[in-house]
Amino acid sequence: MKALIHGVAVGYTDEGNGTPLVFIHAFPLSKAMWQPQVDALKDTYRVVTIDLGGHGESDIVLWHDSLDDFAKQVIHLLDHLGIAQAVFVGLSMGGYTLFSIYRNYSHRVKAMVLADTRAQADSEEGKAGRTSMAEVAFKDGASAIADIMLPKLLAPSTLEHRPELVEQVRQMILDTSTAGIVVDLVAMAARPDSTDLLSTITCPTLVIVGEDDQTTPVTQSKFIADRISGATLVTIAGAGHLSNLEQPDGFSHALESFLKNIEN
Ligand code: MLT
């Protein structure tokens, strides 16, 4: 589905009824990464997924190059759908976007799930890495980015034994425009440190991480969970950075238990 919001086409899905759950994808993927969770949860909840600008079916707005712009885009979609408050699930860059949503629109957040993400800003070395990756994207396109990113996104065992999943993730990266990839890199490099935000978070929070996550290791999720009052940390065995795709049942089960708890 697509909506025209403030003159910009935004790709999204909206299925089911009940408490709204809003899923925000990782770099450089799309809403398609959430299909296992849509399938598992749409009979019980209203499940919304969104393509951030330049991903999937969403237009890119080149001068919207901050995580705050992504956050605004998510909130505009919720306004369009008439959703005042939701449970948000963000994985990695989706988690960075979620920090921005909480910082700017905490009244819209009923609860949140921070998956395979980190609170700290990029180091100087990390920022330089973003610049090099943007140069590769301009020069060699999304397929070169897929070659760089796949080993960062998936656990070694997934890369070795699950060729279909590897291809599915590669295709999602190939479907992302070069401009979209570059805008993400600029936005992530410029994002603020969210460490101080953590102790101000008062909504129910679940932190999830794949035990083999190489990009945002378990220590990063522990850092987040230790600083948010009442947060729960769930580690998913047999998963890397894309824990929701590598172990969809384990991820969805952790989500369902969390959702049941907050509704009781
Ligand atoms: C992601 O999965 O969204 C990215 O790997 C996050 C990052 O590069 O910091």
β-strand amount = 15-25%
Secondary-structure element order, N to C: EEEHEHEHEHHHHHHEHEHH
Mean pLDDT across residues: 97
Q: Which structural category fits the helices and strands?
A: alpha/beta
Please state the overall shape, judged from the principal axes of the Cα atoms: globular
Walkthrough of the structure:
The structure is a single chain. With 264 residues, this protein is α/β, with parallel strands linked by helices. Helices cover 48% and strands 17% of the residues. The chain has twelve helices and eight strands. The chain has helices at residues 35-41, 67-81, 93-105, 124-140, 142-153, 156-161, 163-174, 178-189, 195-198, 218-227, 243-246, 248-263; strands at residues 2-5, 8-15, 20-24, 46-50, 86-91, 109-115, 205-210, 232-236. The protein has an eight-stranded mixed sheet with strand order 1-2-4-3-5-6-7-8, with helices on both faces. Strand 7, helix 10 and strand 8 form a beta-alpha-beta unit. Helix 4 crosses helix 5 (142-153). The model has no long low-confidence stretch (mean pLDDT 97). The structure holds D-malate. The site of D-malate has 8 residues, from loops.
Brief write-up:
This protein has 264 residues and is α/β, with parallel strands linked by helices. The chain is 48% helix and 17% strand.
Please supply descriptive tags for the structure shown above.
single chain, 264 residues, alpha/beta, 8-stranded mixed β-sheet, 12 helices, binds D-malate
Q: What's the helix and strand layout?
A:
Blueprint: E1 2-5, E2 8-15, E3 20-24, H1 35-41, E4 46-50, H2 67-81, E5 86-91, H3 93-105, E6 109-115, H4 124-140, H5 142-153, H6 156-161, H7 163-174, H8 178-189, H9 195-198, E7 205-210, H10 218-227, E8 232-236, H11 243-246, H12 248-263
Parallel strand pairs: 3-4, 3-5, 5-6, 6-7, 7-8
Antiparallel strand pairs: 1-2, 2-4
Helix pairs in contact: 1-12, 2-3, 4-5, 4-8, 5-7
Bound molecules: D-malate (MLT).
